[in-house]
Amino acid sequence: MYTLEELLQQLVDKKGSDLHITAGSAPRMRVDGALTPIEGERLTPEETQNLIYGLLNSDQIARFEANLELDLSFGISGLGRFRTNVFMQRGAVGAVLRIIPFDIKNMRDLGLPAKLCEKLCALPKGLILVTGATGSGKSTTLASFIDFINEAREGHIITIEDPIEFVHRNKKCLVNQREVGSDTHGFNNALRAVLREDPDIVLIGEMRDQETIQAALTLSETGHLTFGTLHTSDCVQTINRIVDVFPPYQQQQIRTQLSFTLSAVLSQQLLQRLNSRGRVLAEEIMVANSAVRSLIRDDKAHQIYSIIQTGGREGMKTMNQSLFKLYQSNLISYEEAITHTTDPDDLKRTFQRAGLDSAAAG
Q: What is the mean pLDDT of residues 6-23?
């Protein structure tokens, strides 16, 4: 029989990202994007419950049994922190545990454009969004931003997370991290209170509905540097998602508010590294210059893509430009680039213009 610590040690040793525990299957781990089983017997429902309940205190067990799902995080000395979702499936307890390293990587190590990101982190106010699918590294990127601010500025940072992932120690800044469920009853409650807590920088772990999005806009409008995440795949979709959350009669007001408050959007994904283990970051970056703000305000977000394409001097780039550069640098394959673009025809034309299409495809 496995112990949970032994399973998590294997996850760390193999540089995996997630551990899956499900009745009727051997434990599985995700390594470089692929989900592979760990050698051993299939787990019974009793074994999965014993493994997972060993993580939980009596209050968490009661909440899980009432709600049939639970988010939490915990740390093991020498291994790391783990973000965990516990759930029921076919009457048995299951869980997915994602590793969160103790050490926070800096922007350069993550493959982010450090000069631009440092400039964004130095802003006195504004809204900076990091978007992408689950598992695209949004939390890791935001942790690097918060850590940079913590070392470079003097102020009060408040994070509202579900659950807390990276733990930030007080450096130049005072950092208060609030976890939904244990430190606050919900994002909305915490966001209603945050203005009374004298923050300079606020991180919203997830902008999940109209109320949290409105709170992020208000915070950035009232003189706070605000960070948030959305599950959107590109910068234009991000703007449309924010506006579309609101009823039609309110959308023009939101466009105007967003045009004044938005500072930047980074949409990212993690790709399989060519000929080696590990992942590599691809990102689309939009900086809200006067042209972008005008297009947002005038309900012409669909035209922003062309601004991003030609905005290289300001640090902007499209996802296709990022994918093409990663291929040119021999970091990803042609197939990986084509698989992860939202506009394959445009990317293929880019390869053709560079005379790489036939060679790359071969």
A: 93
Domain range for 173:
107-317
Helix (H, G, I), strand (E, B) or coil at 304: helix
Is the pLDDT higher at 307 or at 38? Answer: 307
pLDDT in tens, 130-168: 999 988 999 999 999 999 999 999 999 999 998 888 999
How crowded is residue 36: how many other Cβ atoms within 10 Å of its Cβ? 12
Question: How many structural domains is the chain composed of?
Answer: 2
Task: Answer whether residue 357 is part of any domain.
Answer: no
Tell me whether the omega of the peptide bond preceding residue 124 falls within 30 degrees of 0, making it cis. no
User: Which CATH number characterizes residue 282's domain?
Assistant: 3.40.50.300
pLDDT at residue 76 greater than cutoff 90: no
Q: Which of 73, 100, 127 is the last residue of a domain?
A: 100
Same structural domain for residues 78 and 113?
no
Residue type, 290: S
Q: Is residue 217 one of the residues assigned to a domain?
A: yes
From first CA to last CA, the distance across the chain in angstroms is 47
Whole-angstrom Cα distance, residue 361 to residue 338?
10
Are both 61 and 193 inside the same structural domain?
Answer: no
Report how far residue 299's alpha carbon sits from residue 258's, in angstroms, rounded to the nearest whole number.
Answer: 11
Q: Please name which of 22, 15, 56 lies closest in space to residue 37, comparing C-alpha atoms.
A: 22
Question: What pLDDT is attached to residue 285?
Answer: 98
Q: Which of 100, 126, 141 is the last residue of a domain?
A: 100
Strand partners, 272: 279
Beta strands at 80-89 and 92-100: parallel, antiparallel or unpaired: antiparallel
Is residue 358's pLDDT more than 60?
A: no
